[in-house]
Amino acid sequence: MNRDRDCFNIKPILDALRANVGHSEFGYRVQAVFAHALLEIGGTIIEVNQQGHPDVKWVKDGKTSLFQVKSIFHNYAGGTLLVSPSDIAGICPSTPDEVGYFAVLDCAFPVSWVVSEYNAVRRHQNCSVNIESIRATANSELSIEISRTFLELVTRHQDNLHLLSFPVLRNRALRGERL
Fold first, then answer.
1. Cα(162)–Cα(160) distance, integer angstroms
2. How far apart are CA 162 and CA 169, in angstroms?
3. C-alpha span between 38 and 59 (Å, rounded)
4. Most C-beta atoms within 10 A of its C-beta, which of 80, 139, 149, 170?
5. Gap between the Cα atoms of 72 and 39, Å rounded
6. From residue 111, how far is each of 38, 92, 98, 108 by CA, in Å?
7. Distance (Å, rounded) from C-alpha 148 to C-alpha 162?
């Protein structure tokens, strides 16, 4: 697989899914596929929430990671999104073994995940923030690993992605069943 090329080829797949299921359902499905990308990396998914915060809770190596998951749809530099107080509150670590992350699927060319830690993103609370500001503070290693894994999952399942509903994806992730 040529990952550089596939980062560009995945956009039409995601755009078609968004057109097929609508913006809201697209967001839920992306969140659930994100959980499956975490499963591929290792660890256990213990929550995938359609409502409430955090969106995804993942345990790996004794650490619990709290993820708020968003997607941003734009075709130009400078796309923005709102970071709400509830987004920040939902990923605020409450114990020493927790870490919070704000994860954004940037759907512009090339498609990638931007994963920023709680302390870096909390200053944007209640603000409309440019995706590049979040990218500047991102955990690049985790962002790259999740992007690579997500890209592989979407590419592998591109023909039936529209059939994988949020409840199906969620339940499989919670049972530890990989896609």
1. 5
2. 11
3. 10
4. 170
5. 23
6. 17, 27, 28, 5
7. 21
pLDDT per position as a tens digit, 94-151 = 999 999 999 999 998 889 999 999 999 999 999 889 999 999 999 999 999 999 999 9
CA distances from 19 to 4, 12, 14, 33, 112 (A): 25, 10, 9, 17, 19
Q: How far apart are CA 111 and CA 41, in angstroms?
A: 19
Q: How far is CA 150 from CA 25, 31, 120, in A?
A: 18, 11, 23
Q: Tell me the sheet residues that pair with 72.
A: 106
Partners of 57 in the β-ladder: 47, 66
Look at residues 179, 154, 159, 165 and name the one whose alpha carbon lies nearest to residue 10: 154
**pTM score, two decimals?**
0.94
Rounded CA separation 89/54 (Å): 9
Specify the CATH architecture of the domain 3-174: 3-Layer(aba) Sandwich (3.40)
Confidence class for position 8, pLDDT limits 50, 70, 90: confident
pLDDT tier for residue 86 given thresholds of 50, 70 and 90: very high
Q: Phi then psi for 61, rounded to 5 degrees?
A: 55, 40
Q: CA 137, CA 2: separation in Å to the nearest integer?
A: 27
Pairing of strands 98-106, 63-72: parallel
